[in-house]
Amino acid sequence: MTHLDLSAIGMRYGDNVILDGIDLSVAQGEMHVLLGPSGCGKTTLLRSIAGLVQPDRGAIHLAGRAIEKLHPKDRGIGMVFQHYALFPNMTVRQNLAFGLEQRRLARRVIDDKIDTVLEIVSLQDKADARPRQLSGGQKQRVALARALVLEPSLLLLDEPLSALDAQIRKRLRDELKRIQRQTGLTSILVTHDQDEALSLGDRISVMNKSRIAQTASGPEIFYRPADLFVAKFIGNANILTSDEFGRLIGREFDRTAVIHPHMFKIGKTSSDNSVFDISARVVEAGPAGNVVRYVMRASGIIFNVEAQTAMNAAHLVAGTEAIVTIDPSNAHFL
Amino acid sequence: MTSSRHPALTATLWLAAILMLLPVLATFLNSIATGWTGGILPNGLSLGAYQTILTDGRFQSALLCSIVIAGLALSLACLLIVPAVIAAHLYWPSLDTWMARLVILPYAVPTIILMVGYLRVFSAPPLQLSGQPIVLVLTYVPLCFPMFYINVKNSLQALDTTELLEAGRLLGISDTRLLRRVILPSIFPGIALAVVLNFAGLMSEFVYARMLVGGQFETLQMYMFAQRDLSGRLSSVIVIVYFVITLLITFAAFRLVWRKETKS
What we know:
The complex is a heterodimer of chains A (334) and B (264).
Chain A: E1 2-13, E2 16-27, E3 31-35, H1 42-50, E4 57-62, E5 65-66, E6 77-80, H2 92-101, H3 107-120, H4 136-148, E7 154-158, H5 166-183, E8 187-191, H6 194-200, E9 203-208, E10 211-216, H7 218-223, H8 228-233, E11 238-240, H9 242-249, E12 257-259, E13 265-266, E14 276-288, E15 291-298, E16 301-308, E17 321-326, E18 332-333
Parallel strand pairs in A: 3-8, 3-9, 6-7, 7-8
Antiparallel strand pairs in A: 1-2, 1-4, 4-5, 9-10, 11-12, 12-18, 13-17, 14-15, 14-17, 15-16
Chain B: H1 7-31, E1 33-35, E2 44-45, H2 48-54, H3 57-91, H4 93-102, H5 105-108, H6 111-121, H7 133-157, H8 161-171, H9 175-203, H10 207-213, H11 220-226, H12 232-262
Antiparallel strand pairs in B: 1-2
């Protein structure tokens, strides 16, 4: 069931088009990710939904209600900011209570709500700490709790993990996913990090130049990109022109091929007619933990191949000849 | 970083501290000396000079005048400058660049030119106030502007006010309420620092006081100036008294900041 519906959202700033007719539907309980390079309009779109900026045209419906003309506080939306935006002079509890106090709730009700939310983000013992006493990850969890405590109907997350270091980012990502599942809250997360998008998003909208290039599930975006931009932006697939791919498999070919490095298999597999053998030379070999990344050359074309490693299995070294096979049904063509 | 690892740095710090304390110590020593000739230390010690000064009615009224004038000027500065700097920072960034340029004005314009200007402004209607203490209060306010601007601005920049206001809007907290409950308390230490620094500056101000209200009204510095021929000892006493008052105000301000930080 559609929970949030955007139609024809448009916005320009002078001669610059910031949002160019955005249509998007987000289902109830969905974690939707807006992914794109900086300047693609993803943050502006999020801020339009929140009501922090006013688009020139378009309609926004949340739970069946038109909200595009409402004040941010009346939209029923919670938001987590990139740099936390915690109130520095207040304790965690006061940060959470500040919004609730505006609703003239009884003190006991406020305290109960805060305790519940603090438990969800596992910060019960930090209720009386001030923001400066918390780590980055804890601050971001407080920011999340502050948005959750108002029981919004939609949660917006603006690059919530980008200010954290890698280890904490990974942990908080899992936790974010858990909390989103637990609360069943419809959420939109903005990021420029494809790993984050692929691991968090039920569906992903890849944005490019003020438009949505593709909206689909993670695997579909990854394996079946809608256009060249999405193909280049997600993963590090080999993108071979029709001519290059034709030379590689020794046939005439008329479309661009998108082939992920792990789709190439090393070694002759079978005499299956649908699989093409390519004799290539290893140019570079880079073992990296569980995978080894090769750069190979065949018919003057350079391409990347990725293979699994094992403790006692030697990998190919640079300079060796190898047969790699490709099954075109594993590739994607544009 | 331990001090033992950087003996040269530690020595520099001590040297700087001694260098800064030496004039104060020497002044203090002079203020309690009975005489100071022919040796590196005073001939004898006495608190006589303090008694002379502190019981002098003229000194008491001069001190009171200085404190009242500085207090009024600082209150006015807080009421006018702080809201202006905050408003420009939050809502009119283009105005803010102009404020940044205006900051140097009180220093850039030679004092004598300012004085002539002030004397003319305050000698004709509608501001015919020449010679009245209120003139001193009014002219001290712009003098406070740079210190207030720099301190308030720095505190605001450390806050990321735009995000705080936006977070507030989504939580249903009005800008005014957020300013009162979050932004003002957070920049309070900066304001307190500006008040303390300006207070010290205003207490030792002489040129404005002499030129604008010289005849009718005696501030601490003018009293000191009048005593210049009597004895260096008395001047030392006045300087020490003035120094102690500034110190007390500084402590009071920091205590206030500290209490605010740890409260509730």
